[in-house]
Amino acid sequence: MHKEHALIAIPTTGLMQETRDFEITCTAGDFNDPEIEAAGFSGPIRVKVTAERGGSEIALLIETVAGCDFACDICLAPIHRELNGSYRVFFDCSDSGVQATPDADDDEYRILDSNATEIDLTEDVRETLLLSVPMKVTCVGNPDCRLYSGAKEELDIQEPEGSGSSWKDSLAKLKKKYR
Ligand SMILES: [Zn+2]
């Protein structure tokens, strides 16, 4: 995967101070990634990177704010949510020629190349966005989402796609059996 220009990158020269913030705005389409599109991201994505330097280590905190379009899991009504994601990455910039210890190849702990002029965070931001997507999205306070408010009748509800509800079906069958 070679890219001529990193979509989201911070200059390493900005990391010499103790703490520094970087703000980057892009759009969901900039990622040109089917996973981002499939997740429902739309419109602008705001990325804030806080770089904190402590000794020979730099801690980056990546925070994302992005709009995402969902369908309610229960009534399928369209829902727009603003998602907040955060992710931490650590860089070793000791620049002492000491090689990384074998167990330091952790995804979140990296060696900062002393020749690098910038750190490409595109992939990290992409991950942060995908991690910020909730597993389930349902209407909140929507009177039209009748099934949601009728939680007591949940067992009688037919799932629209019948996915992942086998335990519910079993429970419903049991209920009928002992009625
Ligand atoms: Zn709903």
TrEMBL record:
It comes from the Bacteria. InterPro entries: YceD (IPR003772). Residues 158-179 are annotated as: Disordered. This is DUF177 domain-containing protein. It comes from Chlorobium luteolum (strain DSM 273 / BCRC 81028 / 2530) (Pelodictyon luteolum).
